[in-house]
Amino acid sequence: MMTTYEEALTWIHSRFKFGMKLGLERMEWMLKQLGNPHHTIRAVHVAGTNGKGSTVSYLRNILQQANYEVGTFTSPYIETFNERISVNGVPISNDEMVALVNDILPVVNAVEETEYGAPTEFEVITLMSFLYFGQKKQLDYVIYEVGLGGRFDSTNVIQPILTVITNIGFDHMNILGDTVEQIASEKAGIVKEEIPLITAVEQDGAKAVIEQIALEHQAPLYRLGEELHIDAYETLVDGEQFTLQTPFQDAPKLELSMLGYHQVKNASLATTAALYLRKQGAQIEDEHIYRGLRQTKWQGRFEQVRTDPLTIIDGAHNPEGVESLLSTLRLHYEDRNIHFIFSCLKDKESKEMIASLESMATSITFTSFDFERAATGKALYDVSNHEKKAYIEDWAKAIGTVTDGLNDEKDMLVITGSLYFISQIRSAFI
Known about the structure:
Blueprint (H helix, E strand, L loop, with lengths): L4 H10 L10 H9 L9 E5 L4 H14 L4 E4 L11 E3 L2 E2 L2 H19 L8 H16 L4 E5 L16 E4 L7 H4 L3 H8 L9 E3 L4 H13 L4 E3 L5 E8 L2 E7 L4 E7 L4 H19 L6 H10 L7 E5 L2 E5 L4 H14 L4 E7 L6 H9 L2 E8 L8 H7 L5 E6 H10 L6 E7 L1 H7 L5
Parallel strand pairs: 1-5, 1-6, 2-5, 6-7, 7-8, 13-17, 14-15, 14-17, 15-16
Antiparallel strand pairs: 2-3, 3-4, 9-10, 10-11, 12-13
């Protein structure tokens, strides 16, 4: 039995050493021992390569504006591990975390003695979330973010009332496949019989796969660019404005405080989800949608953490994320001298990401962080072809050194890369 939060967290993290085993049988076995708590959850299931966290946050805020209690299950965390299981944006307490670990511990020990073997860290935390939302804290809605892929993700045992696929990109290719069609097939594994799907997937091949899977499951399909249209888009000084056309209704002059056209897409998915839920009886008014979108902020996603010098942190952890970052910089900061600090994991497509960043970089500095899969600054430096590049392995020294060299009023610092990296460095500013 665990008695302290530190002990419980150490036990959860110890699960990392057990390898991933494809399939949901182990998850289903453990849930059965707990009385299948996931069967009582009114869930919205969100998959995609990028934009899952922002889409979840937009929808959560809209529902909260309508006075609903909303749970969220997200990953990874930015400030505290507990935020992965949150209610109305507030992470569960340390005591609740300890209690959940003790509740599932006998089941985890028992499944290890079966043919299914030992569960992973993600399976453990997913199991805890199902127990919490299904038995401990009955809520109006719970929004579940897929951890990896979709088809074999441990969250995919739920029977949602709505599914969302944000987009498709090349990430985790060693697991999900090396074509957009293969990756789309894995993401679309969350599609359920007759449960509507809302998506912003753009590539023709990926769209064709998703359309076929939706058809096979008789799932009503709402596609950005087809049934859903973004119109009258314009950048604001402190955000974005656009009109969304949907089969349910048009939503004119929606405003976001989060920057970037990719956020317009994410907000469009969340707005469509809210309008669908309203059609199903949810008491969501137009004003709830407008306020929810405007008030949404997402830590570590194009987040301004300092004004002098202007400093942005952004978890652009794959090529698609980097392109979204650069697009936002072009829209809002095209007249600036942009100095990048970058770090990522060893298994990421670092060469492509670095080449993209270099296209806008006045300078680029590579660093590392305390994580076993983190690439070294030197390894990233060696990939770079920028004429003004450097590496400093200690990220705190890297930030200090680059900041000290920013003397022009047009200089700005953008710190980007792995979300695990952003999680560590954010504490230096907040």
